[in-house]
Automatic annotation (TrEMBL), chains A, B:
Pfam family, any one: AsnC_trans_reg
Keywords for this protein: DNA-binding, Transcription, Transcription regulation
SMART domains: HTH_ASNC
This protein's record includes keyword Transcription regulation: yes
Organism encoding this protein: Hoeflea algicola
InterPro entries referenced in this protein's UniProt entry, alphabetically: ArsR-like_HTH, AsnC-type_HTH_dom, Dimeric_a/b-barrel, Tscrpt_reg_AsnC-like, Tscrpt_reg_AsnC/Lrp_C, WH-like_DNA-bd_sf, WH_DNA-bd_sf
PROSITE patterns to which the protein is assigned, alphabetical: HTH_ASNC_2
Gene3D superfamilies hit by this protein: 3.30.70.920, Winged helix-like DNA-binding domain superfamily/Winged helix DNA-binding domain
HTH asnC-type domain span: 3-64
Protein name listed in UniProt: Lrp/AsnC family transcriptional regulator
Length: 152, 152
DNA sequence: ACTGAAACTTCTGACGT
DNA sequence: ACGTCAGAAGTTTCAGT
């Protein structure tokens, strides 16, 4: 349950490169490979490591347009919030979705191939949905930082 | 340079589990392991795969508070934008930072252990910085979706 | 708890199709 | 471009300290 300095180093290294081998890890933190293996397994089983993801290049994959869309729900009850949650859960262009304090708004991060398809997404998918009242879009001009590592 | 269906399947699978072995991949897409290895290497070298990251649990690591902070810069010239970019680049609690259309605002995603340290971050780090004019904070109440896979 | 070695699995380059 | 195969590398279990 508690993390010592070896565990934290493992987590730091694996955040930067999730495919490091136990051998490579063992050299970087001065611990045997077998211990790295055991600790890594423990960190995975106890849920500190939720998984491993390949980090892909948006532009190369043709979805270079990123948009942050603020969404106001039609009604602010639990049922409607669930409908909205199901909606964004099933939309592959939505990469992140958060509910916020304030006017009980939501903000979602959406990727599309171009501005035309972004516009189509907003007016054909988002706005017509029963749970949504209105949206405010903001296009990302520049990504200063992304995929920052959690401070461990 | 062009991706066929095998490449796309590899990318989809590796987004969901970045530690899949070539053997496991080969079974899932009906291709030999050596071909999976070759294609994976090519996808890495050509930049479709930027890297692999372990996905950690924020709450377990004691940084469960997530905040989206809208930042207005003091002046909207290039130098000031660079100062701000350097600032967020060096702050470990900032996981994402985007510049947006509209009033030339920025939005940053910040994680902290609790509300006290969030408040300290805003008033001791962000607001005093020369590049920043003012900020508007919004606490994340619920994460509906995060780390969504790019549509490939 | 850790190391080191042994048994097993995976990786990857050479070769043939 | 693909599969097969074999040597190299990595993983993980287990005995020993």
């Amino acid at each position: 349950m508690h993390l010592d300095e070896f565990d934290r180093k493992l987590l730091r290294l694996l955040q930067l490169d999730g495919r490091l081998t136990n051998n490579e890890l063992s050299q970087k933190i001065n611990l045997s490979a077998s211990q790295c293996s055991r600790r890594r397994t423990r960190l995975e089983q106890e849920g500190f490591i939720k998984g491993y993801r390949a980090d892909l290049d948006r532009e190369k994959l043709g979805v270079g347009i990123v948009n942050l869309i603020t969404v106001t729900l039609a009604t602010h009850n639990r049922d409607n919030a669930q409908r909205f949650a199901r909606l964004v859960g099933g939309l592959p262009e939505v990469l992140e979705a958060y509910s916020l304090t304030g006017e009980m708004d939501y903000i979602i991060k959406v990727v599309t191939p171009d501005l035309r398809s972004l516009s189509a997404f907003v007016s054909d998918v988002l706005l017509p949905h029963e749970s949504v009242q209105h949206v405010k879009t903001a296009i990302v001009l520049d990504t200063l930082k992304e995929g920052g590592a959690l401070p461990v």
